[in-house]
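Changelog note: in this version the structure field was regenerated for every chain. One regenerated record is shown below for reference.
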Amino acid sequence: MKAPFSIPCLLAVLWTCTAVLQAQNLTQTVTLQQGWNSMWLEVEPSQADPDVLFAGLPVEMVTTFIPVSAKYTSLRDPAADTWKDAEWRTWQPETAAGSFLNNLHQLTAGQAYLIKASTGTTLTIPGTVRLNRFEWRPQSFNLVGLPVDPASPITLGAFFANSPAHTPLRAFKLLNGKWVQASSAEPAVAGRAYWVWCGTGSDHQGPVSLRGGSISLNAADSMGSVEFRPAGNSALTISLTATGSLPLAYLSNGTRTALSSAQSLAAPAGEWTPFRIGHASLTSIPTAPAASLLEIRTSGVLWRVPVTLNP
């Protein structure tokens, strides 16, 4: 007869998992102004229920655009009751008269939201990192945010350079409750949502495309991979850093290099360049799950890739 799985043992497992995943936790902070605000959710929220997430905050409404088949070809300001259209999902606090119409029941990473606040406030959203990519709808405006490196933000024009589908650039930002055209020379803002016109089918992801996703390792010598391809005709320098309890290394041309500090790698123009990612050592093997966050920077953009080892 099997011994029962004890509560202390279960708690120990849960604590271990929580400690491991802390390396991949991130809190997104959003400054809300009175009136309408646009937000690009960069993290998978720990608490996705809007009833809980916005409890006690002066938030009157949250709405998001979920296109099914319709294309969005004409912008309307939020005050024009855009959110009443069929492609929008909306949440209001239960004290609001229209709360019985709520059809937005959880928030998710990689989605844009419009938030109406009665007064200025700060919204903090704890969550876990998720790699978000664009799925462009052609002949339509797309409501998106960009993977901006806050330390050296890319301009809107530079982000969409080398993309015929976004030329000429038509990007709009929310300012004082109205959608106004953004200049291609202005820096993109991390966590802000923009309406961006896409003329034709496109897989444009910025100055560099990233192929791969979360990396899961099952042994000290196992490897995952990340591939890069510059969007233009010039090579790019990619900077890799790693933080967390799992020491990482990359394998390129048969050489294993520890990511104990930032490493600069070359991505040749016009081709996919693979870099294999794994544990930094083949002799010091973790005996318990561990996790880290791989940060990839180039040309003012920042991608974050979660890496987990479960031996």
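Spot check on this record: Residues 13 and 195 are 44 Å apart (CA to CA). Confidence is low (pLDDT under 50) at residues 1-21.
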